[in-house]
Amino acid sequence: MIDLSRLSLNQATVQKLGALDAIDLCVRHDIAAIGLWRDKVAQAGLAATVAAARAAGLHISSLCRGGFFTHADASRRAAAAADNRAAVLEAAALGADALILVAGGLVPGSKDLPLARQMIGDAVADLVPFAEQAGVRLGIEALHPMFCADRCAISRLGEAVDLAAQFPADTVGVVVDTYHVWWDVQLAADIDRAAGRIVSYQLCDWVLPLPQDVLLGRGHLGDGCIDLRAITAMVLGAGYTGFAEVEIFNQEIWDAPADDTAAVVKSRFADLAGAVAAAAPEPER
Fold first, then answer.
1. pLDDT along the chain (285 residues), means of 10
2. What SS3 state is found at 227?
3. Which residue segment(s) compose the domain that 198 sits in?
4. For tag attachment on the chain, is the N or C end more exposed, with fewer CB atoms within 10 Å?
């Protein structure tokens, strides 16, 4: 079952707030967890962010992001590897449930998609021992195919599961993000295959018409065309017991007062939780 105790506010939803202000926002609205972004943590300072979250009793459901492994020259690949190790250490310091990996798109100057995917697999394999030693769980995120060229050559949840399955489940898992996976005819089967490896569940809705910058085509839960109840039921059915992060990229929502946004996020999540509970089969007596 899912309820408000499992709601996490991803910091991207209130993009204009720094890490410390976003933590304060969660406290004011009695939201138990937050998903943080590395750039915001760096601006506030890692130690200050850790201290603020602990003082607030706030759980860190994820840290975003590592990845972007697909570089053409060796020096850039080495820099990316170093940055990913730094991200692992930041996630460990924060006690985050997962470090989210957005793998990277085509290698610059290349149209070779298999090459990009091979480089991603090799880079993840190189990072796994470091993450395992640090006690950090990596979350491979599949992104919608429209981002394949520039952001992530892993476009289906099944591809992410296939890659994660090459490594220990307690170190490498997958992210289920409704915005990126809702369209996939194999979604139910792949969520089932991901049982034990779902390290993060992220929610928003797909709103129409899409804006010119499609990255910002996300809306509050219930405002779009994704069957969030069905996907949530699938994720719960796969045994996921972690937090559910609401992660919205939308300029109008970013421009709204953050307290108003937090209130809508909480209300819509409560509606979703109620719908999931109402649709659940009666337990056998």
1. 96 98 98 98 98 98 98 96 98 98 97 98 98 98 98 98 98 98 98 98 97 96 98 98 98 98 98 93 64
2. coil
3. 4-279
4. C
Position 72 in a domain: yes
Tokens of 25: 């926002």
Task: Write the CATH number for 53.
Answer: 3.20.20.150
- State the Cα–Cα distance between residues 114 and 36, nearest whole angstrom: 31
Instruction: Provide the β-strand partners of residue 173.
Output: 139
Residue type, 107: V
At 2 the pLDDT is: 92
Query: What confidence score (pLDDT) does residue 282 get?
Result: 66
> Using CA atoms, how far apart are residues 51 and 93, in angstroms rounded to an integer?
10
Q: Across-strand partners of 177?
A: 202
Q: Is position 285 within any domain?
A: no
